[in-house]
């Protein structure tokens, strides 16, 4: 029975570890860089803006390839935010107008 409990625990831990994926821009980064990234994103007490600034600082110390991948990642994030942020705001505005 104990063996089954230990085995189940190991399977759960393995699944949890495998479920996490680093952002694409860290694909070719060193293990140290990935660890530094994790330390930033999991640190309590930092606002999202502060975490973003620390990630940008970290990336600036990495290779040019990773910096380019990070810049592409940021551009994609902004495009998504612009596309969906605008459509959500338009929907909110439409709902407000319909209620008047």
TrEMBL record:
It comes from the Eukaryota. This is Uncharacterized protein. It comes from Panagrolaimus sp. ES5.
């Amino acid at each position: 029975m104990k063996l089954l409990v230990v085995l189940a625990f190991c399977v759960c831990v393995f699944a949890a570890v495998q479920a996490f994926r680093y952002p694409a821009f860290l694909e070719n980064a060193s293990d140290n860089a990935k660890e530094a990234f994790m330390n930033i994103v999991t640190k309590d007490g930092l606002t999202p803006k502060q975490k973003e600034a620390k990630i940008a600082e970290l990336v600036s110390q990495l290779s040019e390839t990773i910096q380019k991948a990070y810049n592409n990642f940021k551009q994609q994030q902004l495009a998504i935010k612009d596309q969906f942020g605008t459509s959500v705001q338009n929907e909110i505005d439409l709902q407000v107008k319909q209620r008047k």
